[in-house]
Amino acid sequence: xxxxxxxxxxxxxxxxxxxxxxxxxxxxxxxxxxxxxxxxxxxxxxxxxxxxxxxxxxxxxxxxxxxxxxxxxxxxxxxxxxxxxxxxxxxxxxxxxxxxxxxxxxxxxxxxxxxxxxxxxxxxxxxxxxxxxxxxxxxxxxxxxxxxxxxxxxxxxxxxxxxxxxxxxxxxxxxxxxxxxxxxxxxxxxxxxxxxxxxxxxxxxxxxxxxxxxx
Length: 215
Description:
With 215 residues, the protein is mostly helical. It contains 9 helices and no strands. The chain has helices spanning 4-19, 23-35, 37-60, 64-68, 70-93, 116-128, 131-140, 152-185, 189-212.
């Protein structure tokens, strides 16, 4: 079993990594800026669900496939980039909602809002289709494991849960900040259109970064 000191050190490291700008927290910021705090929170939970997949992959040794197979790595990142480009297309073609801000959190209730389940699924797909997350977990989590303290797979699962908790803390804070932007931009149709265009550009940039990434 991991020592309390090791778990605390890992949790602090995970918090710092979550604060550093990256595709996932930018994704949360974009969704919460478009649709409010609730959207960012739900998107975060989708991303965390994706982290469950990556944690299990590392614990079972599956993630090593992406480290050794260029084809598997390329296929998965291509799927991920294609999904991001599809989200960009949705953002570019989206118009403004004529509804007023109806919730205290800043989310709007017009047709432009895709629904919380859609945002949750977006978070899952966004995370699962990024093979670099599995490779990062494969390189990062074992550093805090001690084979002399029991099953490494169990230790990896514990670290994965701690990483998810750190992600929730940081990303919900990001969602709250993005929600403030939503309140401001959703005051006018022009503001909503601008935010949709900005979101589309962000998705295109994330897709390009994923396509250009290497193992």
